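hi! just following up on the protien thing from before. the input was this:
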Amino acid sequence: MAEATLSGAIHPILENDYASEWMGIKVLALSDGHATIRMTLRQEMLNGFGMAHGGMIFAFADTAFALACNPVNPAPGETDSITVAAGVDINFLKPAYRGQVITAVADRRSSAGRSGLYDIQIFAADADAQPDPQNPGELIAEFRGRSRTIPKK
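and the predicted 3d structure came back as:
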């Protein structure tokens, strides 16, 4: 999929996802159990040290996690359920800074019944670097998510 701004037309869960819209997330790729997204770090996303706030990195990775967990085109019978986070861990490895472009790559590692396990890697690159899907930048964080499929309310 070509780079696209966030919208419900790309994935149903994005239709009312105002947080991800505010972050300026762009969807680069989606497939069953996989998502790649990108955003540029803005000043209001920084902490008091001038680095990306950990909560921003976490929220960014969480969007990639949600996109990888939920089908783009749910099959009949899948529309009555959603997949959400049951628990997550994040490890911050290096800082990222204003103007850098961060990319999250989410992949399903395992799925059994209503539970799943996903790994999301977050990379940072300077804004003037040529986008390269094979080399999205320097690894700055790793996020592991445990998912659970539940009834939709």
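Residues 137 and 153 are 39 Å apart (CA to CA).
The chain has a mean pLDDT of 92.
cheers
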